[in-house]
Structure formats: C-alpha cells, structure tokens
Amino acid sequence: QEIATIYEAGKSERFSEPEQRTYVELMFDTRDAARSAFGALAGGADPSTLQGVVSRESKTVMKDNVPDLLLRDAMFGPGKQSGALFGPKDMEDGRWLVARLVSVQPGAVYPFETVSEQIRNDLARERATQLLYETLDQLDRSVNAGYDLNQISSEIGVPVISFEAVDKNGYTKDGLPMIGLIEAKDAFNQAFEMSVNDTSSQFTSEDATYVTATRKIVPPSTPDFDEVKDDVRAALVMRNEGEAAQKLVNDIKERIESGASTLDAEAKTAKSAIEAPPGPVTRMNAEESGLPNTAIGGIFAGKAGEVFTYPNRTGDKYMIVQLKAINDPSPDDLAMADMSAFSALNSSLNSDLQAALEAEVGKAIKLKVNNAAFNAYKASISTDQ
Predict the structure, then answer these.
(1) Nearest to residue 336, comparing CAs of 270, 283, 385, 300?
(2) What integer is the mean pLDDT of 60-74?
(3) What is the value of pTM for the model shown?
C-alpha cells in the first residue's frame, strides 16, 4: 500500500517520461515591433493577428532540448502554463525574438508494475540510511558513556571482530598483516594509546565506522637470535646486493661521463643489449617510452650527453640512460603542446579565479557574531572527558 501511495503521489514527475511543450517563436526586425507584439500577446491577442512578424516557427520539444537557458526557464519553469511569454531578445543578427507557450503535453506515465521494484528499493535504501544514522547516534552515545565494546555490540546488533596481537603497523608476530585493523586507521592507532579494556572514539571512513578496544598489551621483547637469523641473513644479503649493484652502475656512469668509456662499450662488457625508443621522446609521449617516471623528469631537465641511472619500473634491474640529443619541437609538436597547455592553464585560471572570488566575497561580507550565544551553544554540546 505504501509503494502504491508513493507511486500515485509522484507519478507525474518521478515515474513518467519527460513532458513536451509547444511554443511559437516570433521574429521581428525591430525592438519596438517586438515590444509591441509582446504587449499585445500579454493582453490576450491571437499570435496570428500580430503585425510586423518576419518569421514564425512552432516548436514541440523537451526541456533539455532548449539550449537558451532563459528561454528554457520561460517555457519550462515551475508554474509556467499556456500563454507564458518570453522576450523581446536581441538575436544579434538584426532580429528580435518573442516566444509564447502554446501547450503542455505531459509525458507518458510508466505502469506501476515497471517501477514498483524501483520504489521498493528506494524506500528500503531510505529506511536503511535512517536506521544507519540512528545506529551511529546510539553508538556515539554508548562510546561517550564508557560502555564496554561487547555491551555496545550487543545493544546495536553488530558483531565484535577479534584479532591476534599486532604491532603498531598492524602485523602479527609471524609477519601477517591484519588488513581489517590496518583499514581502521585512526581507531587502530588509538588502541595503542589506551589501557586494557578501554574503548576508542568513533571513527568513520568512506564506507565504515570503527570502534576499537584494547584487550591485552604485550610488552616489547627481543626475540632469540635463532628465531630471526634467517630473516637477518636474507636482509643482509639483499642490502649487500643492492649496494654492490648501485656501486657498479655509479662506476659505469662515471666512466661514461669522464670519456674513459662509452655506453656501447659498457653494454658489451656487461653483455647487455642497448635499447632505444622508436622515436624521440617528448613530453606528450614520455609515458609510452617505457622509462620510469623519475627518469622522465631527469631527462627533460638534463643536457645532451648526460648519463642517468635508475631502477627500472619493475625494480629488479638498473637502467643506465644516456641523453643523446635534444631536438627543437616541430610546428606540429608545438600545436599539440599549445592545446594541452591551453587546457591546463584554463583549468588553473578557473581555479584561481574561483579562489579569488571566494576571498573577495569573504572580505566584503561582514558577519556579526553573538559571542554569548555562541559560547552557550558550545557549552551545551561539550562533554566531560
């Protein structure tokens, strides 16, 4: 019954096709003729009897198909009925426009059977949202009252999820990440500032609300060497390999830059192939070159002949890159860059103008603040901590 009631109340607006309206556009050579016609129409004159009409066109359209916003509002605005007028408007081609709304054709109403499921889903979503806000309010009151997390869970009907002991990064003793805790962010961080059985504040993210409670505090300790020696060994090996690789590429770079060697000779010694982009790298195609982002920035700031070293994009190898030449852009390249720069500058300018407008409005508006009322309001919502 409720779904049917919602349907009946909103079928002319929410559950029907867009309405169409018919209006006539009258063109005149002079403003005076257009104003005279507007006055006659306002007095109830028949459009067919008007004098000085240069052209006459009847249009039947939907609201979104009227590009002129002022004309659209005059023909489709709230409360507009047959006989509504618009104009005179200078068309900037020597003509003046006057428009008159002739008729309104409501859109076809969708059958109840085709929209009942949509209404049911919207109603369920609305009630779920209302229930969510009520639950969050209850959660906030329970947290402020100092209730235990289990009691809060029982009252609002939400389960408590328990986790193994973790460090401040959210990892267990065995190195497993507890994703659920890590995603709690501020609520998780606060757990390390609380005593046992304390309850955190309520923290809301994009899709969840978190409350945590500390159940046990494990004192810091140093594990036996036998437990971690394999991990220590692996870390040392990785560090030594990284330092050795970095020293190797730095030595190669130094030899090439000093002229003692060349990129081709070093590649031959290392039994490595030299790769080059199929064409010159520009700021427009740099992302497609295969170079890491750090290398792209360095190359466009470098000089011809300069050598750069970077980890590749997968991080398992080093790249030694030499900038061979710097070419001036062609007219076509400049034209493409102009389009990109225009878009970026236009966006930046719009942002700056918006910020400037807000700043000027803020300066121009003088707010009067009732400090006594403001302080009373703050006192009414404050709670003892």
Answers:
(1) 283
(2) 91
(3) 0.36
